[in-house]
Amino acid sequence: MRTPKYAVPDSIKCDQRKYDRWLRRKAETHVRRDRKRAKRNMPRPTVARYKQMIHSAVCESKGDFYTGLPLEWSLISKWENASAKRGGGEHKRTFARLPTVDHTVDEQGNLRFVICASYVNAAKGDLTVVEFYQFCESVLDHRKRNAESE
After folding, report:
1. What count of other Cβ atoms lies within 10 Å of the Cβ of residue 5?
2. CA quadruple 47, 56, 84, 33: dihedral positive or negative?
3. Which residues contact 8 (CB under 8 A, 6 or more apart)?
4. Which of 53, 69, 71, 128 makes an SS bond possible with 99, Cβ 3.0 to 4.6 Å?
């Protein structure tokens, strides 16, 4: 039996075929996005390079990058757009801890992928890591001020 190029890390419980599909789709999605946003003098991203970078992020992951909470790898490749439309918010909550890839940059401004939960990635949007943490702190500060005024 052949060893897969991107073997599922021991730290997560996931079927190899589902992981391979998830990894390929995430890399393709990010390549498409980055090619649309790329400036002329930037190198063109490739699916092969992004697969390697995303797999490295998975191997380094200890749960959600931003919260430290565990991710539910059993949910990958189960999202269906039709079910999401019918199920609305309840459906989205079911997939809240679905692992996904956040496209960010490191301290030197280099492209970096991190693994986080779907709902965290949705809340972060296009904010930088620093901006996201500042936003989270403002939410907590607001909650604290409201609790003190009651």
Report:
1. 11
2. negative
3. 14, 15, 16, 19
4. 71
Chain centre to alpha carbon of residue 53? 13
Query: Which residues partner with 117 through β-bridges?
Result: 99
Structure-model confidence comparison of residues 90 and 145, the more confident one: 145
DSSP annotation of 12: S
Dihedral (Cα; 110, 113, 119, 138), 10-degree rounding:
-30
CB 47 within 8 A of CB 27: yes
Q: At 80, list the tokens.
A: 């269906």
What stretch of H or E contains 22?
A: helix 16-37
- pTM of the complete model: 0.86
pLDDT in tens, 125-142: 989 899 999 999 999 999
Q: What pLDDT score was predicted for residue 58?
A: 97
Give the domain ranges of the chain. 16-121
